[in-house]
Design a protein that fits this description.
This protein has two domains: 75 residues, no CATH class; 218 residues, no CATH class. The chain contains 14 helices and seven strands. The radius of gyration is 21 Å and the shape is globular. By secondary structure, the protein is mainly alpha-helical. The strands form three sheets. It has a three-stranded mixed sheet with strand order 1-5-4, with no helix packed on it.
Length: 341
């Protein structure tokens, strides 16, 4: 049986339910797994009636809850609590609700479980930690040489972005390292970052997003009106990244943690596609966009709170990471930018 590995912050997570300002029961399509559906079919009384009336079958055979006004789950009550949970208990939640915001990466000998940055409570935990990424339970070596090489590259990536200094200089080093890492992975060679130096990010110039990056964001599928409003501000250049001295250090530290989160989450995808390069670019791109979004909040609010910084991180995560179409568009953009090399 595969072992299960968690980040060191994983067990700190607890859903904050009705205290959440951005409920995952609003605006998300909620699919129902077959085991939960069987339970719902056998539920009687008023809740059973509501269940039978508020589940639809899509053309592809997927069962899901019929969202109500403002795209609210029909079982999210006026107190922003779940009626299914309240009446039947936590075990009655469908799998997607019970799991959120967890994600899993599958290796030959283990499974990694993490928390998605799209969740308010998870984002607070992730951005608040300090230092290099680590696991609650130690990593064990295994037999797959490709996976071992990939994890060596990921450990080096963690080290690069968590080094002292400006996070964007470190991310520049990450991109240069990822070029060498991709070559090494393709050719079965070892790679080291010892002699790899930084460089300016190709999509962030002088604290402002480059035109090609803004264009890419504009082509992505929108996930919410909140994103549409944020994108309009970014396109118009209506943001200010001359952050007050008192928050610059915190921003640097938080973006370092965001970068490590992106590396942790997306590098394992290279097991399937062999592509480390675009995953490293996504980590740098995500930090650049979050930084600019924080500049929008600074201009709009006249200051920048930790809540604003959490909102920027989770909004980007929802927009990019939770749309397969948007992620594929980004990876293709990277390789187009690199000339397909």
């Amino acid at each position: 049986m595969n072992g299960v590995v968690y980040p060191d912050y994983y067990r700190k997570f607890k859903c904050i339910a009705d205290r959440c300002t951005d409920s995952c029961c609003i605006g998300w399509e909620i699919d129902i797994d077959s085991e939960s559906m069987e339970r719902y079919k056998n539920c009687g009384g008023e809740l059973g009636r509501r269940l039978s009336e508020n589940i639809a079958l899509s053309e592809d055979g997927t069962l899901s809850f019929i969202l109500g006004e403002n795209e609210r789950c029909p079982f999210l009550n006026s107190r922003n609590l779940c009626d299914i949970y309240a009446e039947l208990g936590e075990d009655a939640l469908c799998k997607i609700c019970a799991d959120h915001p967890r994600f899993r990466s599958f290796f030959s000998d283990r499974t990694e479980v993490g928390l998605g940055l799209c969740c308010e409570a998870a984002a607070k935990i992730i951005l608040s930690r300090r230092g290099i990424f680590s696991f609650e339970n130690p990593e064990e070596p295994w037999s797959d040489s490709f996976e071992n090489a990939l994890l060596d590259i990921r450990r080096e990536a963690f080290r690069i972005v968590s080094a002292d200094g400006d996070v964007f200089e470190n991310l520049g080093r990450l991109l240069n390292f990822s070029e060498a890492a991709q070559y090494a992975l393709d050719n079965g060679e070892a790679v080291s970052a010892d002699n790899i130096f930084g460089g300016e990010l190709p999509f962030l110039k002088g604290g402002r997003l480059a035109e090609n990056a803004v264009s890419l964001l504009g082509k992505m599928e929108s996930i919410s009106a909140e994103w549409d409003n944020m994108l309009a501000e970014i396109i118009s250049g209506n943001y200010e990244t001359a952050f007050p001295e008192r928050v610059r250090f915190d921003i640097n530290e938080e973006l370092e943690q965001a970068a490590q989160y992106f590396i942790f989450r997306h590098f394992p995808e290279a097991i399937d596609d062999g592509d480390v390069l675009s995953k490293a670019y996504f980590a740098a791109f995500g930090c650049a966009v979050i930084y600019v979004m924080e500049g929008v909040y600074l201009r709009k609010n006249g200051g920048l709170s930790f809540t604003d910084r959490i909102n920027a991180a989770k909004l980007f995560s929802k927009q990019a990471e939770y749309s397969e179409e948007n992620m594929e568009m980004f990876f293709e953009w990277v390789w187009d930018m690199k000339g397909g090399s």
